[in-house]
Amino acid sequence: VAQGMIEKVLHLVKVEEISPDVEGMLLCRSEGEAPDVDPWILVYDSQHEPGDYLEEKIVALDEYDLVGEII
Q1: How far is 3 from 48, CA to CA, in rounded Å?
Q2: 71 touches 10 (CB < 8 A)
Q3: CA dihedral 34, 49, 56, 43 (to 10 degrees)
Q4: Which pTM value belongs to this model?
Q5: Collapsed DSSP state (helix, strand, coil) of residue 5
Q6: What's the CA gap between 50 and 1, in Å, rounded?
Q7: Is 4 helix (H, G, I), strand (E, B) or coil?
Q8: 70 CB-contact burial (10 Å; exposed 0-12 / middle 13-18 / buried 19+)
Q9: In this predicted model, what pLDDT tens digit does every residue of 37-56 receive, in sequence order?
């Protein structure tokens, strides 16, 4: 299922946390995703904070998570 997400544009992605381990990485979830069940959407950005909503394009897969790019 995750492979089918590459190149998909997500219009309502919420920044949930700033990564405590990787500087500049935001941990996000799209509408309908659940904590502890669905993967994170990882985004590198230093201008947004938890609670912000973004529009993102999925560009890659990490081991368990999706990697997004703000558009």
Answers
A1: 27
A2: no
A3: -90
A4: 0.89
A5: helix
A6: 27
A7: helix
A8: middle
A9: 888 999 999 899 999 999 99
